[in-house]
Specification:
Order of helices and strands: HHHHEEEHEEHEHEHEHHEEH
Strand content: 5-15%
Number of strands: 10
Mean pLDDT: 95
Number of helices: 11
Distance between the termini: 19 Å
Shape: globular
Helix content: 25-40%
Largest sheet: 6 strands, parallel
Radius of gyration: 18 Å
Strand order of the largest sheet: 5-4-1-6-7-8
Length: about 300
């Protein structure tokens, strides 16, 4: 196992990681590709490397769950991608904890370790964040499809609705840690603050983006796809297929729907994410498997 975790021992060309980034940016309808072009050209590789370098140094905390105020439930984008990352890390021997709000706890399998972050004041959120660091000593924090705070100290969904009353200040924890990853697809998620100046000064993006930053940022068309992209990058670096099959992904999504999750674009309980039907989602996953099969010598 130690040999597999030594990414320096594998001669994987950078092109493989670029192909992963291109796949998770397919069907781009929010101009995320423009943002990716001004970032580190190998951001998915750098994020995965940081995970591997710290996988045995402490627990890895993954935060997810985006609450939609009209149906009063979470959307289908976020938890499935979080599970993809978490399962990959667990297969590599890492210890994963999911950090969520109370309204997301039923969507996380009770077999998983979870922390419920309270929806409280900034002062109390800071105290709780410090307690997390002291008690769990996390080595990496990962946010996938988590709303980030804006310059006006509020949380907005992609339609610019204020969801502050439903959103815990998890940003505070990320501000306290040095090894952080943010995955987003719209400009209002934790991590997208890395590109605040670009987003705020362009009419192509949302009017009031988040200021919440992370060490590494993954931009993607759908945040779940970014989770799959991280799992694929970890696979390349560890020479082990850690990416779920389309059958497994379908089961995960159906379980989320059965628990009450909805597509965030139209609030319907159906096999779709951000308006993309499940066939498109499966094609993205299959393309990522094709990259793994192309560059690595293992059976799917």
């Amino acid at each position: 196992m130690e040999k597999n975790l030594n990414h320096n021992s594998l001669n994987i060309p950078d092109q493989a990681f670029i192909e992963i980034q291109e796949i998770i940016l397919e069907h781009d309808y929010r101009e995320m590709t423009l943002l990716s072009k001004i970032m580190n050209n190998l951001y998915i590789k750098e994020a995965a490397k940081m995970i591997l370098e710290n996988i045995r140094k402490g627990k890895i905390i993954i935060s997810t769950g985006f609450f939609e105020i009209i149906p009063k439930t979470i959307e289908t984008d976020g938890p499935p991608g979080a599970f993809s990352i978490g399962n990959a890390i667990t297969e590599l021997g890492g210890d994963v904890i999911y950090l969520i709000e109370n309204h997301t706890k039923n969507f996380i399998d009770q077999e998983n370790n979870i922390i419920i972050f309270p929806n409280t004041s900034k002062e109390e959120s800071l105290k709780f964040s410090q307690q997390i660091i002291e008690e769990y000593n996390p080595s990496v924090l990962i946010s996938i499809e988590r709303c980030g705070i804006t310059e006006k100290n509020r949380y907005l969904n992609i339609s610019s609705q204020d969801i502050s009353d439903y959103n815990a200040l998890i940003d505070v924890l990320f501000d306290l840690h040095k090894n952080t990853i943010g995955i987003g697809d719209g400009g209002n998620e934790i991590g997208m603050g890395n590109l605040y100046d670009v987003i705020a000064n362009s009419d192509k993006f949302i009017d009031e983006p988040t200021i919440s930053k992370t060490k590494h940022l993954i931009v993607t068309t759908v945040s779940n796809w970014g989770g799959w992209g991280i799992a694929a990058a970890l696979s390349l670096l560890s020479n082990k297929n850690l990416l779920e099959t389309t059958e497994q992904a379908t089961t995960i999504m159906q379980e989320q729907l059965d628990l009450g999750a909805v597509d965030g674009s139209h609030f319907k309980s159906e096999l779709s994410v951000d308006g993309f039907d499940w066939e498109i989602n499966k094609k993205i996953l299959l393309k990522l498997h094709q990259v793994l099969n192309k560059y690595l010598d293992f059976d799917r």
